[in-house]
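Appendix B. Extra example for self-study. Work through it before the problem class; the solution is given directly after the inputs so you can check yourself.
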Amino acid sequence: MTAMLALHHDAPTPDTLKLLIALGEAGADFATVPVDAATLAQWRGPHRDIAPGGEVPVLMVDGDAFTDSTHALEYVAEALAPGRLAPTDAIGWYRVQAWLNKLDGVRAPVNLLGWNLTTGPDERARYREALGKVEGRKRLAGWSAVVEDAEVSEDQLQVARDRIAEIVDKGEAQLRDSPWFAGDSYSIADIAGYALLRGLPQLVPEIVAAGRTPRLLDWLERIEGRPAVREAIGGDCDSHYTPPA
Amino acid sequence: MAHVQVHTWEPNSNSGKPMFALAEKGVPYDYQYVSLPDFEQHSPEYLAINPAGTVPTLVHGGEILTESTPMCEYVDNAFEGPALVPTDPKARYWMRWWGRQVDINAAALSVLGWHNFLGPMARKKSPEELEALIARIPTKERRIAWSTATKATFTDEQLGNAKAQLGEWIATLDKRLAVSPYLVGEDLTVADIVAFANFYALPMTVPEHANKANAPHYIAWLRRMYARPAVMETFGKSRSLARRAFDIAAQLEEDGE
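Solution. Structure tokens for the complete assembly:
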């Protein structure tokens, strides 16, 4: 039985891109529904009905809304490409999940830095103002609530750079041990890693560059050469970043 | 069966996840106690095993595992015993989705945990001693986080927000647990283990939200979890914070009559 699939997505931000690539690699038959995140369409009308928290992308699977892009990615690997996009043995699957966790942990710093270095203060102010008008948007009360709806400081950007350098170094070290993030075969860990890290050579050339991270650059190139990846990127070679919500 | 070692603190929060998972699978393990209030997770001995200085760490067959939720899936895959992960891929998605909600809401709980427990214990140390302990934390990010945390005292508003978020989270759990006895259906899964490891003590932490009148299905789930032999056996290993589980279990028993 084949599941009915639809990907509701915005510009190829890291989370959208990883699902587009994985669905392509799986050879899945899926519909796409555009969501214009630049105009905050994820907080309105039909999209908000399926994703009350304003999540983009959303993978619809037979009427279930998968709003968590990383766990949706695991679903694609397990249900649509068994054994092809992730190892199935205990330690192999752990390695995939451990990398996905690490990558999820740096989504915020990559997006924070990307958003701040690729937009101007006026654009950010307009975005914050529009976001401030969204009704019923939930803010979490944990440590992250300390981050204000304001321009970030140079210190915060430096913390983001440090965290990015940390994952980049981990990736470089991993690729010294094995050709792919989770071992001998290409997996969803590489797909998620590529989608998140591909913009770094432009964004932080002091961290990702031939003299410092040759293996990571080679790995990005190997992934970019795959037909499913080229298809997912289309003509759009720029990296897109998710503004803070 | 290969020898399993778990280097961790109490059966509480992330530290407890592999302990409950191994106990449910019936896998014996060597419990290496790492005292968080004494910053033992940043000792040279511990960093030799896990350079990131986080707990828990599971060691099995030459592999070192340090991510607490994936570790639970590993335990399920690597050992015989009752399944802790459903076979249906959609059910697996929802199991992991619940795991993510647990992590998000555990952040609110960690504010209260710090305020009530770890913060006061850390502040008993002299500033010089604290500084020295923070200096040996391996990553800059965690040094900044710990340095902020050891100085942090939360405002009443911040504590109130954290409690309100936990109230909403309990309502979310309660709504789901009205539909099925466990978070993903009829049987216990990794989602219940990670939720319970974080939220077993809410009747004590936020009694205004976590009570039978307010959240009967959540309380019934807690009673089911506390009735599991693997759970109580695991709490029996506690040396400090998680001993409170016995008081909570007794209270739930009393209220249930």
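Self-check: Chain B has two domains: 4-78, 89-256. If your reasoning did not lead you there, revisit section 3.
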